[in-house]
Amino acid sequence: MTTDAPAVPEPLDPLIHVPARLRILVTLAALPKGDALSFTRLQDIIGLTPGNLITHLRKLEDAGYLNTDKAGNGAASRTTVALTRSGRAALDAYTRALRALLDGL
Amino acid sequence: MYGTPDTGGAGATGDDAPLDPRQAAMLLEQTSRQAQRQFEPSPPWLLAIRAVLVLAAFGAVWFSVRGQHPYNGPTAAAVVAVVAFGVLNAVATVAIGRRATARVRGRSRLSTVETIVLASIWVGVFVVMGALAAAGVSNGVVYGVFPATAPLIVAGLAWAVIMAGRANWRACGTALAVVAVGAVGAFAGPVGAWAVGGIGLCLTLLAVAGTIAWRQRHFVVTL
């Protein structure tokens, strides 16, 4: 006799499962691969204060989910943010896990 | 790294609060839709307007040349309609494309070289048209088949190559559809070329508009 244990859904990535960080990743995922978004436009879209956005970006960058790049110096400097391959994979995994979770509800 | 003052913690506005899975799903879909609309350089409504305008412009030329024996070419008013469409199309494309790709860095923006190549191709097509007229080629070719089809074939191919280089297969497919419209029109005679061009481009644009609208509705980061 075989006992088929019910499939255990993947856990939701706690780093992504937060409104602001979920919105950041999903927004960046909508860009064509290889494109980066300026910090200021991302801020306009997400609607966070610069400080909040920086904090969330740092957490995502530390996890390797996104890259930031700063061009120029001083007032003219421009920071851009892009999703990394592992960030895209993490978002895909999160979406799969969320789907499995909702299917089970 | 970010060059902007840190004015608060992430939790200051409750953005660190965990989500209920249903809320997360809703937020994910909402954000994905919003972002796709923001970054789309060819929104469906613009494509639908273009489809109507191109049909009207090419239709005006077809209306002015149908029944011509021998073929003399379109009237000045019809030429003005086509040129007006071309200018409107270019202005709308550039303006909306710039808005969509504002503060975006990477491959979705046309490089200066690519812009120059595309502009040169457009100029080159009409230089060749002038050369054909000077060489005494028939009006049916110079003012009929050539202007109705050559820009579609040449510019379409150039655009397809550029888009294939970026792995943008949707845009590449659209460009190849435009090339196909031009190729079919080339065998439709000087009057038929305008009709084929107008109807073919209109259908292509409507198909692309429908595809983008469908994708925006269904191909968000979906659950």
Structural notes for this entry:
The complex is a heterodimer of chains A (about 100) and B (about 220). Chain A has about 100 residues and is α+β, with helices and mostly antiparallel strands. Chain A has one domain: Arc Repressor Mutant, subunit A (Orthogonal Bundle), CATH 1.10.10. Chain A is about 50% helix and about 15% strand. Chain A has four helices and three strands; from the N terminus they run H-E-H-H-E-E-H. Chain A has a three-stranded antiparallel beta sheet with strand order 1-3-2. In chain A, strand 2 and strand 3 form a beta hairpin. The model of chain A has no long low-confidence stretch (mean pLDDT about 85). The N terminus of chain B is likely disordered. Chain B has one domain. Chain B has seven helices and one strand, in the order αααβαααα. Chain B has about 220 residues and is mostly helical. In chain B, helix 2 packs antiparallel against helix 7 and helix 5 runs antiparallel to helix 6.
Number of strands of chain B: 1
Shape of chain A: elongated
How many helices of chain A? The count is 4
Question: Could you tell me how far the N terminus lies from the C terminus of chain B, measured between alpha carbons in angstroms?
Answer: 34 Å
What's the quick description here?
The complex is a heterodimer of chains A (105) and B (223). With 105 residues, chain A is of the alpha+beta class. Helix content of chain A is 49%, strand content 14%.
